[in-house]
Model the fold of this input.
Amino acid sequence: MINRAEGAYLGAVRAFQNPMLDLLHKRHAPLVVSVLSACFTADRPTVSVADAHTQIGDALDQLRAAGYDENLPVGTARDLCRQWADAGWLMRQVVDDVEVYRLSAHAVGALEVAGRAGGARARVSHSRLRTMLDAVEHLAQDADPDALVRMARLDAEIRRLQDELDHIQRTGVVAEVDDEQLLEEAENVLHLARELPADFARVAESIKSMQRDVVTALRQDERPTGEVLREYLERAQHVMEATSEGRAFAGALRLIGDPQRLDGLSNQLDVVLRHRFTQRLAPQQRTELQEIGHRIEQGLDLVFTAQREASYVITAQVRNHDPLRDRQVDDLLRDVMTGLQSWMPDSRRGQSVDPLLRLPVAEVDHLRQTAGDLRPSQPPALLEDWDDTDADSPDDEARNWGGPHYAELGRHLAALAGQGVVDIAAAFTAGPESFRRPVDLLGLLELADHQGLTETGELTFVDAVRPDGTRRRLAFGGATTRMKDAVDE
Done:
């Protein structure tokens, strides 16, 4: 059985395994805290990888030039950022096709702890005790289901507020609060506000962690596809309710998500900053008071962005899920990791690797040298004889509905050439019905144009006959031609 001392020690060991305490426990913690504080600010929550490496490299050079070389770690800015990302202090993401760094919730908490320890010491003040007592009172009211007790508390609160209202209406004077008490309350507000970024970051990271769990479970493909689709699409739509941090944030959002409430917060902060007691605050503290609303909006945007990305990734994975392909990718990555593990123990730093110039050739013991007999077992049946002279054949029917009969039309024009000038309309009307289709009129005009066409300027009408016997009256500009050459058939 674990005794009290051993239990306390094991609890402390687990606490120091947290990346936040691990950061503060490291030998180079002052460097990490100072560099991350300078690189990441409230207005700059993400920094591109290239810019972060450059800024951190400049900071290291300045510190070495100032004589702090013995207190600095060995390695470049790129190496340090990689180590901090492995330790869980930095998160590497892709935003708008640009790879960026973002502080993790553990790093935000560590910077806040370091900032409080390096600043003014927190005091046990009236404001802080009142905050705790008010929280306990609200907790008791929410936990007590007794209606009579709740009514008695509400009546007492109403009488207190009514007495205060009557006093103001009677005297017209509001009781002033001592500047020292206002200063304590402002410090308490700042203390609470400094914890907001870490709280928002924890909510965003919990959503991303849930996203990774969902994608991993989906890739395992241990359940029927229909069941997986229904469950994970629903989780993608309700991602905020899938984690304890997300549910807590959703409850807080109902309080601070109202635009009117945020506007009221901004107006209240303006009233506070106009008071004379704020002159006793440091400039940094006044700036923090002024930016509380902005911090809340940034935190909300951080969580909503994580929620949108999780919904997009989960939905895309569900839509494009291919168990066979995912299994092949997993096997390939496993083979790569196995190869690296076998290569790393015997390798040296900076050792070159021979590239794979060509794919390996498959070792086949024997190839078949003869092909099978491709001839069929029996010849195909003979084709039927086709009589091309049959007038009722499909070819004649198709030709009747086809293009102009140029050969027949050419002979028809040649027969009329002895009359000198040939009128196109008269030539078309004089022909048999088989040559008087609408398309034959176009063919006749085309042949006449080759011989030399002369327009008369008059509108001419002819009656065309379709192959099915229907008639169509056509109009075109009158034209004549004089046959010069014999028309080829």
User: Anything to note?
Assistant: The longest strand covers residues 453-465. The beta strands are 46-48, 90-95, 98-103, 421-423, 453-465, 471-482.
